[in-house]
């Protein structure tokens, strides 16, 4: 022990450290890095090499570059436990999806220190806890705030309590005998499942809980938790009716809304982030499986985007990305999700869209992007994008295969000359 | 032993097994030999010089956990688990003395041989 040099001991310590440590300059060029950091970085960096932190994470956490450049203080903590979702698909269910967290501290004008940690197991545990929380919140919070309704097997209101009137503005006596879905106009709401779909799940699972926008009689939207419980006599397989509980969830505090935005949005473009994309994909996959609802995916990638960054600089590139996101988000159907998947790659989840509808929307987005004009000191900047579409049916329900298929078609569109939507040969009926 | 040309590409697992410690130390590239449970039992002088570690402290510890975490992923460590017969050269980036360093790795394993090797060429 005594004849080992202190440098050697220090190296041993760093080689064995179970947390990734990285020192880099403001542009992300890595000066020092320990093996644990490289263990995670190299598989992500792929062919582009792992000499630059931001480039290595460009596909999985494109927001890091802008988060760092937006940090103007001379020193300080830029981000703390920023989550990076590595796996999008759910094909490898045997292991937990891989999630890394990244903390970056600015030590000087051109010196950053970062840590990289694998928190996949923690995430799995968190999700379990959150589910339990939702349950307890629903069961324990002030019982008086609940509108409760008894519903017949064919969806008609058998009875409703007085709180239903207070919460929704509909007279609870007058709605008896009416179709609940019509009273609540649930087919018009943007989020999540339709009421009859909730009934179907409750019929098989016993209950179903979801949160989403609901409308009061006067048209005012409010955020509502909706619990559907199936009632049965115990002997038959068919439910003998349903209980529905509606809860007006108090307006979320500003901090809560901020947190929500932080967790689901890409900070640069305001599009959904990879995490949200991945979670939505899994939800929609469940619906595809249970209801055989069609689900389509569009992936798009800006053409020659690197040239824009190289010629006009990252700020103009960022501006272009924002314009693309705004233009495409404006074309989305109510339940569609527009997400930034990587540097200049975006994905669009389209529940209830078949292939023809997806191809049509992709073509609209292509035109919208080609029409964009961004002013730069160096002149006018324009953009085009290439598109690939695929449906979950084609991928036989596998999210990994769906992503791969859409990607393959996107690259076919690139090969065919860019600025186009790849048309699939022999369209299925 | 007759003078045969030993290169990073041509050296076989049997050659490595037959060599003395001194011969392996004289090779111009790093040589790490480890058991099925990944504990290191060969760590040549070239590798020690590149990593800055004394072979005496590396011998007997689990390679992918304590020294070479950067290879503890599907690109290297997993391959030794999945492929009993392995002879492949992969471009890689190591963190020798905490500096990102581009290298070539040669991964060597053979069914029936308990010792596996990673050769490292800077």
TrEMBL record, chain A:
Species whose genome carries this gene: Devosia psychrophila
Name of a matching Pfam family: PAS
Catalysed conversion reaction: 2 GTP = 3',3'-c-di-GMP + 2 diphosphate
Protein name: diguanylate cyclase
Cellular component GO terms, alphabetical: plasma membrane
Stored CDD domains: GGDEF (cd01949), PAS (cd00130)
Gene3D superfamilies membership: 3.30.70.270, PAS domain
EC numbers for this chain: 2.7.7.65
Domain GGDEF: 293-426
GO BP annotations listed: cell adhesion involved in single-species biofilm formation; negative regulation of bacterial-type flagellum-dependent cell motility; regulation of DNA-templated transcription
InterPro entries named in the record: Diguanylate_Cyclase (IPR050469), GGDEF_dom (IPR000160), Nucleotide_cyclase (IPR029787), PAS (IPR000014), PAS-like_dom_sf (IPR035965), PAS_fold (IPR013767), Rev_trsase/Diguanyl_cyclase (IPR043128)
GO terms of molecular function: diguanylate cyclase activity
Automatic annotation (TrEMBL), chain B:
InterPro entries: PAS-like_dom_sf
Name of the protein this chain belongs to: Photoactive yellow protein
């Amino acid at each position: 022990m005594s004849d080992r040099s202190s440098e050697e001991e220090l190296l041993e310590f760093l080689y064995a450290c179970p947390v990734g440590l990285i020192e880099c300059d403001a542009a992300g060029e890595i000066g020092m890095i320990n093996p644990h950091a490289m263990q995670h970085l190299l598989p992500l960096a792929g062919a582009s090499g792992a000499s630059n932190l931001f480039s290595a994470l460009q596909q999985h956490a494109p927001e890091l570059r802008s988060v760092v450049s937006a940090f103007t203080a001379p020193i300080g903590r830029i981000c703390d436990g920023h989550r990076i979702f590595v796996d999008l698909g759910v094909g490898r269910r045997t292991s937990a999806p891989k999630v890394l967290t990244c903390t970056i501290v600015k030590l000087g004008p051109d010196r950053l220190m970062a840590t990289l940690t694998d928190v996949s197991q923690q995430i799995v545990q968190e999700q379990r806890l959150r589910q339990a929380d939702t349950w307890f919140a629903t069961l324990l919070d002030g019982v008086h705030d609940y509108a409760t309704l008894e519903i017949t097997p064919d969806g008609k209101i058998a009875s409703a309590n007085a709180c239903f009137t207070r919460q929704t503005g509909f007279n609870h006596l007058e709605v008896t005998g009416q179709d609940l879905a019509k009273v609540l106009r649930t087919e018009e709401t943007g989020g999540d499942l339709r009421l009859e779909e909730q009934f179907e799940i409750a019929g098989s699972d016993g209950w179903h809980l979801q949160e989403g926008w609901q409308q009061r009689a006067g048209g005012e939207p409010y955020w509502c938790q909706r619990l559907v419980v199936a009632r049965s006599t115990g002997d038959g397989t068919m439910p003998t009716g349903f209980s529905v509980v509606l809860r007006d969830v108090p307006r979320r505090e500003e901090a809560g809304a901020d947190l929500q935005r932080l967790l689901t949005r890409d900070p640069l473009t305001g599009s959904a982030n990879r995490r949200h994309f991945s979670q939505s994909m899994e939800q929609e996959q469940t619906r595809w499986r249970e209801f055989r609802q069609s689900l389509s995916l569009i992936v798009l990638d800006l053409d020659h985007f690197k040239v824009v960054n190289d010629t006009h600089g990252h700020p103009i590139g960022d501006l272009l990305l924002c314009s693309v996101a705004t233009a495409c988000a404006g074309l989305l159907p109510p339940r569609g999700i527009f997400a930034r998947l990587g540097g200049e790659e975006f994905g669009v989840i389209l529940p209830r869209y078949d292939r023809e509808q997806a191809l049509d929307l992709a073509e609209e987005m292509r035109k919208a992007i080609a029409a964009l004009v961004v002013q730069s000191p160096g002149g006018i900047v324009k953009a085009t994008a290439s598109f690939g579409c695929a449906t979950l049916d084609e991928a036989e329900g596998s999210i990994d295969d769906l992503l791969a298929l859409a990607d393959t078609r996107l690259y076919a569109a690139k090969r065919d000359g860019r600025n186009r939507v790849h048309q699939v040969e022999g369209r299925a009926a | 032993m007759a003078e045969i040309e030993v290169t990073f590409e041509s050296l076989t697992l049997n050659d490595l097994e037959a060599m003395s410690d001194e011969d392996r130390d004289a090779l111009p590239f790093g040589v790490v030999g480890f058991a099925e449970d990944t504990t290191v039992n060969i760590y040549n002088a070239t590798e020690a010089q590149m990593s800055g570690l004394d072979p005496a402290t590396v011998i007997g510890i689990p390679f992918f956990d304590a020294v070479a975490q950067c290879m503890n992923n599907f690109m290297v460590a997993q391959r030794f688990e999945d492929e009993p017969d392995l002879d492949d050269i992969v471009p890689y980036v190591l963190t020798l003395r905490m500096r990102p360093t581009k290298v070539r790795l040669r991964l060597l394993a053979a069914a029936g041989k308990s010792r596996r090797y990673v050769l490292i060429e800077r």
